[in-house]
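Project outcomes to date are best conveyed with an example. Our students and postdoctoral researchers have been running inverse folding experiments weekly, and each run begins with a structure described purely in tokens. The record below, which covers 292 residues, was selected by the lab manager from last quarter's runs and is presented without edits.
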């Protein structure tokens, strides 16, 4: 059979043709042109992702870290004051009926640098005898923002909140609106595209500081956000169970303890940007009929 082309037989007896990049003479790793192409194609890609996407290794991501670029020595920075004239604050919420609601605030400046200033996921509320209400969460959010002196430009919430009844009568969007906090439905994190945006923002890029050119990531996290740092550094792709030679495994992250990461994914899917403070308009509600 031609180099780079192979077949496999599925559990149902179907013959499936598999085409590897080495079937292209210009991408053959045995040639100088092929080695150069591989070097360029692998740039910025983790080894596990490369093996899954290019080497036809179906289970390569199973058990792998979702954010292999994360390094606390690089991405966790000392706390600094957010100047509202230089940074725009975005905020996201991930609500759940039986798990504490998660909240995360992201600031972005004119140079598209982003920093997670504050995150809030009250794990103490997991106790079976405690049930926090939306009113309680809203009061916590207002207290945090009043203390920090922030004006939030945009708030988004997992769109699943439209179908989750906060008190068997209203959605979480309605419940938070009645408590004085307005959220817009977030875009769906389809195929974990929001996680890809996070990992890309964690990669170090070239910045000019004064007369020097330095490498640093676009996304950093202020000290004190220990739970968020834990989630970013520990979240892994689920292990594949079954015959990995039969079909692609579902590319999904482990479900537990990822709610703050989900908040950040929702915000990056919105393509957050810096907005001049004088041009900000207060949010007055949301349209539940908008499909995003």
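After processing, the design step wrote out the following sequence:
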């Amino acid at each position: 059979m031609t180099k780079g082309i192979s077949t496999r037989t599925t559990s149902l007896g179907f013959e499936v043709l598999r085409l590897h990049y080495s079937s292209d003479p210009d991408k053959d790793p045995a040639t100088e042109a092929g080695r150069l192409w591989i070097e360029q194609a692998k740039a910025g890609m983790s080894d596990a992702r490369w093996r899954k996407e290019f080497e036809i290794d179906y289970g390569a991501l199973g058990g792998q870290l979702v954010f292999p670029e994360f390094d606390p020595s690089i991405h966790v920075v000392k706390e600094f004051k957010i100047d509202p004239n230089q940074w725009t604050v975005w905020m996201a919420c991930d609500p759940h009926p039986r798990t504490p609601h998660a909240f995360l605030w992201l600031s972005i400046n004119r140079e598209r640098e982003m920093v997670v200033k504050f995150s809030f996921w009250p794990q103490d509320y997991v106790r079976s005898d405690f049930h926090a209400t939306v009113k309680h969460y809203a009061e916590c959010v207002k207290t945090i923002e009043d203390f920090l002196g922030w004006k939030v430009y945009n708030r988004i919430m997992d769109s699943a909140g439209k179908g989750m009844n906060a008190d068997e009568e209203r959605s979480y969007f309605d419940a938070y609106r009645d408590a004085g906090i307005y959220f817009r439905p977030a875009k769906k994190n389809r195929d974990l595209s929001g996680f890809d945006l996070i990992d890309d923002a964690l990669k170090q890029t070239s910045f000019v500081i004064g007369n020097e050119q330095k490498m640093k990531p676009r996304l950093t996290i202020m000290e004190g956000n220990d739970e968020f740092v834990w989630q970013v550094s520990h979240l892994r792709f689920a292990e594949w169970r079954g015959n990995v030679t039969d079909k692609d495994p579902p590319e999904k992250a482990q479900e537990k303890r990822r709610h703050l990461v989900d908040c950040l994914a929702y915000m990056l899917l919105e393509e957050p940007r810096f907005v001049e403070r004088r041009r900000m308009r207060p949010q007055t509600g949301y349209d539940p009929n908008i499909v995003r």
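The chain has two domains: 5-53, 72-279. The first strand starts at residue 5 and ends at 9. The training component of this project remains on track.
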